[in-house]
Amino acid sequence: MTPIIDREKTGKQIRRIMELRGLSVHDVQRFLSLGCVQSVYHWFDGKSMPTIDNLYALSELFQVPRRFNRRGTIKTEYREDA
To answer: Residue 50: how many CA atoms within 13 Å on its side-chain side?
Structure first.
């Protein structure tokens, strides 16, 4: 069984924490050395997810425990076929 990660909730959580910390999309882009800000907007919209490496880096930037990215983002449903 594989947990299903809710990309939209994850994006909302990232946006919420950024707002609480007073961080801009450009701050995140620079911290992660991203080529453009579009990646961050895609995370917000649930179109894509940060890589595991970027999630760990974000937890440092956001000054939150590394488990932040799972809280509220993993649905309680499982797929048998994965």
So the answer is: 27
